[in-house]
Amino acid sequence: MGHDEYQKHDAKILTPSFIVLLTLTLIGFALILLRFVKGIGAVSNMSDGYPWGIWITYDVATGTAIACGGYAMAILVYIRNRMHYHPMIRSAILTSMFGYGLAGFSVMVDVGRPWNAYNFFVPSKWQANSAMFEVAVCVMAYTTVLIMEFLPAILTTLEKTEWKTLQHLLDRVYSRLGMERPERIGDRLDKVKELAAWARPRLDKILIFIIVLGITLPTMHQSSLGSLLLIASTKLHPLWHTGFLPLLFLINCMYIGYSIAILESVLSCYAFKRPFETKELSGLARIIPWLTVIWLSVVIGDLAWRGQLAKAVSFDFYSRFFLLEFCLIAGGSLLLFSKRRRESIRWLFVSAALIVLGGALYRFNVYLIGFNPGKGWHYFPALAEVMITVGIVAFEILGYQVLVKILPVLPKLHTREQLAEAHQHTVGKKALEH
Amino acid sequence: MAKPSRRQFLKIMGATGAALLAGKKASANEGHKINNETIGMLYDATKCVGCKACMSACKRVNGDYGSLSYERAKFDTDGLWDAPEDLSGSTRTLIKLFKQSEQEWSYVKYSCMHCQKPSCVSVCPVAAMTRDPETGIVDYNKNTCIGCRYCQVACAFNIPKFQWEKAIPQIVKCDLCKNTNLPKKGISACAEVCPAGAIMFGKRKDLLEEAEKRLRENPGKYINHIYGAHEVGGTNHLYLASMQFNKLGLPTLKEDAPAEFSEKIQHTIYKGFIAPVALYSTLCFIAVKNMKGHGEAEKEHDTKTDEGGDH
Ligand code: SF4
Ligand code: SF4
Ligand code: SF4
User: How far is the centre of ligand 2, averaged over its atoms, from the C-alpha of B147 (Å)?
Assistant: First the structure.
């Protein structure tokens, strides 16, 4: 694994978008505070009929799928041996780390008795029949794995840092206090540097086993996210309730993962004014239709087998959502079958967006829209409930924006050709703006 | 290199599918057994007079178990009456009146059904919901519950309720007076106070026998069905009524327990943890091999330009 393949993005941290995101984050967190003081009922429209609202549906079930970019890229880079995608993996892992970390965080907001969560570590309380147990343990483990996968970026920075900002800050504090800065602080900082330098090569040696763990864990819990709804056989609409839920969720997170890697790369190149990674992206885009085709065949085959095809085209409430989901995914992949479109940033963006939307809608259909606990129950998220989710997502983007500016995350631009390409692509960017 | 690894990858995916199909087959011949020695209640809607004595007795004895708070009716500004509209975070049992017409009506009592194969127990990640194998009582422990509400999603009867308005909420549902009236008096509070004999408390087998007897001796009075005898794998709370059960708010359910189906699939995938371990070792093998290959390829890379694309 080369270490010179990544670079920091040199730019100001305080931008207008930073302020907007920060505001949204603060609103969200204020509402979270309210939830802990006044109970979940005070901020949400969840009820005994719909005990899972958009927090579980979006933050956990959909959010972790969207955070599967790191997972999908890791499969590609390390298992399918296309090492030339390697430079793209760090930013994918960073987004995954945020996605998963914050999914874990929002679970703590959602569950009613979070202080009892330590029971997950008490073997006598383990309940292996529960898909939720499996999801919880795997998500915790995977978040740890993601942090370790990202550690090299932090360690390299620690190794190289001169602690200028920190030293300035300390100097100022001490001069205010009218004291000299003690020598040992400098020593301590040097120690940290040494430690980072010591740890990094050692981590490098075992990193591959951690990375593979980072492929195994999502494979397990993403399919278990589908298993969660297996039990609701009387509540989930037959268009979505099937024994194949675990398999469908697994494939679903993969094509969402690759599509997100495309979207993320296009958006961050656009926002950070870098050349588009067209070659890599069109390579990625080749894989997606294969996955969606498998997925769609399982869906159709299973519906036919269970005799539910007629329901799918009955154009009632459920059928419409099913068809929408179907068309978004099928439409997006159809676009990607053409080589010409795969090489155009605009089409790549459009088709990846369609597939992410369709894939996310599938998860919403399973968790909320297709879920019907019986007569008299209705659910539509409350404003405060939505704002909490928005706050969490805003925090995610905020963190990404800041970290790529202080840590080497984005692929390095070194060759002259790349710089020339960068120039060319400004034209492409303009086209995208329209 | 790309091709064999793609095949390997598809193989892994195929294995998941195969496991699912195997799971389906297995569920057909195993299946759980109903234990008729466990205890429960038989509610006879035709005997119920709707006095709601059971409701207040339930709140009285279970006060310190989190269901004492009374609920106000909308018109009751002084809060003089307890007027729950449905089961909730403060009401474990409820009597409702269903009117088909002026002449045809029926009371119905709602509470936990104490399933033989309870979904709530099957899904609870921390074993806060438990079923006592001897008594068959499905009990809840607030000291382990994390409040994830999966039990609510899972229960086909929508029984577990959550205290949405509390900063320190818990799940509330009938526990057959396991910690209150039952150890003290050997009978559930609601059955104890019922003045009309509409609630019979006892062993499941005695309750079934009695229900069959009533059906036999009063032809035409009842719908010829003991609700709960087989629904979702059998429940310990049984019903007799003179009106269709689904009209009384008791869902029409199949005989197999949903928990059987979901556990089979979950167990097939995770049996002995073989599949995950196999997946991990296979992936490690491929990844390490690829890494080595990459080391050599990198040397070539200097002289050759990357072609990109997928082949
Ligand atoms: S009725 Fe619902 S809450 Fe009661 S035991 Fe059955 S599944 Fe659990
Ligand atoms: S809410 Fe509590 S009792 Fe219900 S499944 Fe979750 S942890 Fe178990
Ligand atoms: S058995 Fe006890 S807890 Fe259950 S409804 Fe009757 S009185 Fe209430």
Answer: 5
Q: For residue A390, give the H/E element and its range.
A: helix A383-406
User: pLDDT tens digits, residue range A165-207?
Assistant: 777 888 888 888 877 777 777 788 888 888 888 888 888 888 8
Q: Locate the DSSP E strands across chain B.
A: 39-44, 94-99, 105-110, 129-131, 138-140, 161-162, 171-172, 199-203, 237-240
Q: Return the beta strands (E) in A136-283 as ranges.
A: none
Collect all residues of chain B within an 8 Å Cβ-Cβ radius of residue A291: none
Largest CA distance in chain A: 82
Read off the DSSP letter of residue B98: E
For the CA of B150, the nearest atom of ligand 2 = 5
- Are A264 and A91 in contact by the 8 Å Cβ rule? The answer is yes
CA distance A251 to A219: 9
Q: Which chain A residue's Cα is nearest to B23?
A: A243
**List of chain B residues whose C-beta atoms are within 8 Å of the C-beta of residue A367:** none
Which of B181, B185, B207 has the most ligand 3 atoms within 8 A of CB, as the residue to mutate? Answer: B181
- pLDDT above 50 (res A274): yes
Stretch 106-135 of chain B: residues touching chain A, C-beta under 8 Å: 119, 122-128
Question: At CA A218, angle to CA A217 and CA A223, rounded to 5?
Answer: 110
Cβ contact B170–A113 (<8 Å): yes
Q: What is the pTM of this model?
A: 0.87
Closest alpha carbon to A77 in A130, A2, A144, A9 = A2
Q: Please, which residues have CB within 8 angstroms of residue A79's CB and are 6 or more apart in sequence? A: A215, B5, B8, B9, B283, B286, B287, B290
* Rounded Cα distance, A425 and A404, in Å: 21
Test the B interface: residue of A115, A119, A129, A280 with most B CBs within 10 Å: A129
- What does the pLDDT look like over A59-105, one tens digit per residue? 999 999 999 988 988 888 888 766 667 778 888 898 899 889 889 89
**Nearest CB to B287 within list A208, A223, A233:** A208
**B224 secondary structure, DSSP code:** S
Residue whose token pair is 């879920």 = A371
Q: What percent of chain A has pLDDT over 70?
A: 93
pLDDT digits (tens, 9 = 90+) for B70-86: 777 677 777 777 778 88
CB contact under 8 Å between B148 and A112, yes or no, is yes
Residue count (chain A): 434
Tokens of B254: 């199949």
- Nearest CA distance, B164 vs chain A (angstrom): 4
- Residue of B94, B192, B109, B177 whose CA lies nearest to B138: B177
Contacts of residue A204, Cβ cutoff 8 Å, sequence gap at least 6: A1, A152
**Does residue B73 contact residue B83 with C-beta atoms inside 8 Å?**
yes
Q: What's chain B's length in residues?
A: 311
- By Cβ distance, the residue of B23, B153, B283 closest to A52 is B153
Q: Report whether A229 contacts A366 (CB < 8 A).
A: yes
Per-residue pLDDT tens digits for B22-43:
444 444 445 678 999 999 999 9
Taking alpha carbons only, the member of A2, A118, A56, A49 closest to residue B291 is A2
Q: Cβ of A246 and B269 within 8 Å?
A: yes
User: CA–CA distance from A123 to each of A101, A137, B126, B243 (Å)?
Assistant: 24, 12, 9, 47
Residue in B249, B252, B259, B241 with CA at minimum distance from that of residue B116: B259
Torsion of Cα atoms, A196 then A199 then A200 then A205, to 10°: 180
CA distances A352 to A255, A331, B129, B253, Å, are 9, 10, 43, 42
